[in-house]
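thread: overnight batch results

M.L. [08:02]
morning all. the overnight job finished for the chain we discussed friday. pasting input first so we're all looking at the same thing
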Amino acid sequence: MPTLGETFRSTRAAKRMKLPAVSEKTKIPLDRLQALESDAYDDLPDDVYTRGAIRNYAIFLDLDPRAMEHLYRDKRPAIVKAAPLTRTTTTTRLAVIPVAAASLVVVILILVALLALHVIVL
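M.L. [08:03]
and the structure it wrote out:
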């Protein structure tokens, strides 16, 4: 039974498509496609992103996405499958809206000016 990479490579070759063109059309990075076609699972990112790329590439090549994902799950080491997603810290800051603050100041100045004009006129 052919591997995932062999299946992708042979199907793409049968359709006479170059890998850079496939990358451009599918928006899957070229290095990720190369790693998929060469069965270099250590060069692939987190499992979630890889499964998404496999699914999109399979659909693009008119292959069964479930069958391709099954081939992938059989070959990728269990340790890599269990690796957590990359974690990034995020900070949330309360942003002061400068336009609203400036508008409030302008409104207050106009009110003060109108009040002063009213006092002067009377």
